Amino acid sequence: MNVSSAVWIVTLGILIAAFVLDFVVVDARPHVFGPKQAARWVVAYILAALAFAAFVWNYFGAEYGQQFLAGWITEYSLSVDNLFVFIVLMSSFAVPEMLKHRVLLIGVAIAIILRGALIVVGAAAISRFTATFYVFAVFLFYTAISVWRSHDEEPDPEGNGLIRLVEKYIPTSREYVDAKLTIQISGKRYITPLFVVILAVGTTDLLFALDSIPAVFGLTKEPYLVFAANAFALMGLRQLYFLLDGLLSKIIYLARGLAIILGFIAVKLFLEALAGTTDLHPPHITIAQSLMFIATTLGVTVITSLIAVRRSPELALQSEISHAVNESTEHLGEAIEHLGSEDSPK
User: 55 pLDDT exceeds 90?
Assistant: First the structure.
């Protein structure tokens, strides 16, 4: 797949334009982002991803079109786990409802930039060392087991180590001031909690990318498609946050489905590594087979979840989203209490 500089520039230009449009038009005046508005944008980004898949299919060939679709569906599904952590972060930083969309908008922009750097590193490793697939396969298999058992894990309400360093060494206010990232008090400049939580969302996402990017590389070795799959997944993820209560709380077997998909990709990577580093001729899993397996697994996951919840509604209270909501309630405003130095305004 030969992707010219012009195609890269146009793709990045459209991506940037989409964020600018979102910031200038949708988020020009911070407001509460309702489920109906969120649903429209989720549908819009899904259609945009399908249109991009059609472009790749026609311009580069059906094989690459299928690779993008498989990578995007996988990345979108895996990114749902990010939302559970975002719920806890939003609550622990006591983000006002009208600012949540802006937090996700800028946080996701940061996440895409950081993921782009990680994709460059991953692509370089794969091009130089075929054995990198062994590492990815083992890592994904371990991740699959972790995801299967992930129900009892508790998200860090304060974000990550970088956030703790920022809180420790940079003067920080404990009060939100409209949508300002910094404020000046008595001649001294402070960053606001809005700045900190945006940074938390953007950098915490990178931890999830360590799982999902190797998974997408297991479906396509093309950095352009890996980046596009990540970008479209994250862009659609923002609005999905506002549909959590009505949708994801019912998909109680999501973690199990994702674990199965990760395990499948781990096997695919291992077989490709064997073919590339030995004289063996292991079975080859085509991208069409991969796409069918991923779509079928997700479909079965959703259908069995909905049937189970319809029969026993109390199961929804045991879902990952319910667990995240409970954690967010327990940690409400907790991170705000740790913000700033001793001379920071309270």
Answer: yes
